[in-house]
Amino acid sequence: MKSSLRLVLLAVATAALSVFAVCTGPTALLDFTRLWDLLRSGPATPELERAAIVLWELRLPRVLLAAAAGANLAIGGLLLQAIFRNPLAEPYLLGLSSGGALGGVIALAAGMTVLTWPALAGSLAVAAIVLLLCRRIASDLPSLLLAGVALGALAQAFTTAIILRFDPGALRSILFWLMGSFSGRGWAEVWMLAPSALAGGLIAWLLHRPLDLLALGGESAHHLGVRVGALQTGGIVLAAALAALTVAACGTIGFVGLMAPHLARRLAGPNHAVSVPACAMVGAMLTVGSDLAARTLLAGTELPVGVVTGALGCLFFLALLRQKR
């Protein structure tokens, strides 16, 4: 099957899952029939007016935010796996998401309401340390990945120490945010994440040739004209920025950046010109589907979406290790 046809099928699947997620939820006010009536003629009856509120204020921004978050994390994971030439690299395992969460919690403790810049500072701080280590132990990429895991654990330890000082009334909502959630988010978060997903995907796609050459090894890529150091720096910084924006908008969501690149390469092939858009769509489907499961699996209870992606990611991680053996 041609790569272009596979991308079209992935786009159709992503759109179909998104429409299903918009029409599915604890309230029966909105289904596919009412959705079609709203899009065709608007809220003509009181029942359709209530359905329109559910659509435009609750379901649609939530689904779009989940899709943008999944695309961000997936693109970040694809970049990190290509840069480190390690199938286990991703923003969560490398500590970038944990650094962003630490920055966000410090901002909350200081009474700030805007978490974007503190989260970005936290992720970039972890990225700076990773880049410094990258210069020193570039020949030992597995050790570099383990260093990122250690940095993430350190950031999580500081985060835990800080949130324990919060008022017990606010502690539950902060913990729910830290575990990843799209609940209570609106169009402001969508307008923050959607442009970053489009820009990040475009930049990664423009780098498809250097990323393909980097798979041959750093020295071979250098001889073929790739500025390896600049590519590593730019890729890690971009992955950190995408992870930080996602953390600021909807908390820490793990393992999407691990699963999406592997699934995308299986579906579309290793060529980054095709795998980058495929990865973004697979990441969007993972988060939209995980959020759908988080709000429908248990009646009357909503799980943090990070719990669902964490469970899926652990199973995927173990399967990946078994396959590598």
Structural class: mainly alpha
Estimated share of beta-strand residues? under 5%
| Low-confidence blocks of residues | none
What does the largest sheet look like? Answer: none
The count of helical stretches stands at 14
Number of domains: 1
Number of β-strand runs: 0
CATH architecture label: Orthogonal Bundle
Percentage of residues assigned to helices: over 70%
Order of helices and strands: HHHHHHHHHHHHHH
Strand-helix topology:
Layout: H1 3-23, H2 32-41, H3 46-84, H4 96-109, H5 116-136, H6 141-163, H7 168-178, H8 187-206, H9 208-214, H10 218-223, H11 228-250, H12 256-268, H13 272-296, H14 305-324
Helix pairs in contact: 1-3, 1-13, 2-3, 3-8, 3-11, 3-12, 3-13, 4-5, 4-6, 4-11, 5-6, 5-11, 8-11, 8-13, 12-13, 13-14
Structure description:
- The chain is mainly α and 325 residues long.
- It has one domain (64-324): ABC transporter involved in vitamin B12 uptake, BtuC (Orthogonal Bundle), CATH 1.10.3470.10.
- The chain contains 14 helices and no strands.
- α5 (116-136) packs antiparallel against α6 and α13 (272-296) packs across α14 (305-324).
- It is globular.
- The mean pLDDT is 85.
